[in-house]
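Fold it.
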Amino acid sequence: MKNTANMRWEFQIVVSMCMGYAMLMLCRTVVGVAGPAMLLDPELALDTASFGAILGWGTAGNLTGKLTNGVLADKIGGTKIFIAAIAMAAITTIVFGTLSSNTAFFALYFLTIFAKSAGWPSMANIIRVWFTHAKHGRVWGFIATSSRISSVATTLLLSSLLLVMTWRGLFFIAGAIALLSAIILPRYLKKSWQETGELSDESEQTVDELSAWFKSHPLNGVGALGAILVFIKSPRFWLISLGISSLAVLFEFQVFIPIYLSQTFSLAPAQAGMASAAFPLGCLVAVFSAGFIYDRLSSKNVIFVFGATLVVAILCLLSLYFLGTIEWNADLELVLTIVLIFLFGLAISPSYYIPMSVFSINFGGKHCGLLVGLIDALAYFGAMIFDFVGGEVANKDGGWQNFILILIVTSIVSTVIMVSFLYLEYTKSSLKKES
């Protein structure tokens, strides 16, 4: 019974984080789904380039938020920042649905994604105080899975609603659901084991393990500035930052997919939105098992498994580029494109979610939120540049082929960098075992 009680609390915390992050993903996904309908709205002065600028300003909000929200989560507490972020994202999403000018879209999407950026640093702090190192991979896997489930579900749901309502209605519904969750979640998402009441023997053991790890961590007595100096002196920090930066660019393809499919295959906005669900569905299939696999693989095997998935991503993009150079049956080409987008999402998501998340807690300790924020800030800086450039490139005649070519080069770079990082992690763990 004691073991059951311990598992019940851990399960409740994981589910609460999954639900909360799903709301943040909902507020982000709605823009991509509504994109084709917004471009067709005669009341708006939007084209593919200006829509890319909206995404770029959102990514700027992500970058800014990562530099501030990680520090706030470390100091104020992951739970408080997490709940506040959901509430803010909900409100700005609702307001976004009332706007008509490009400048207003830029500002509100900046604020929405600024709030969304608090999710990962906040959860890193929540996981740090609730779970031992042996469970980090599977917990992050569950959370990543929830983000993918929500992305698939919301993409299909919002695309279906787009058949019977305007794009503005999508923002109102998404914001209202997220706001309701922000009101309910504090009841279930506790700040620490101590808030659960009387602890079982296993809970006491978990708290003791976490306390011992915290006290022995090299950054325990170091301030935020000192921690930053430690981070920037580490080759592993720069490798994972550059690796995640290139993967973030690849992930930005997701918000362009509805427009890409709509313009390439002349699909209606709702149809393009539904077809774009292939990407988050591929991510879902991958991250559902990636966390468990990561915990069970040796550091050496992680290099081969995660490196192989990134090679698959390169092949998917090369195939998409090839499809655009030849004349195929249109229906067959659409099916093949959707399958390749599915496989692409499946291939890049494990490397994007798991290694950085586990590394940040282990290396960052009590400054894990700060470390996550710094890595993500660098990542979203690259993604922000891609949003602006990618939108401009795709807006030209035949631009989608050049758009995919940019992704191919980025995918090759990300594979080289991530394999290098994982190899360095392997050598580090080997030295620890020898000592």
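The CA atoms of residues 158 and 170 lie 6 Å apart.
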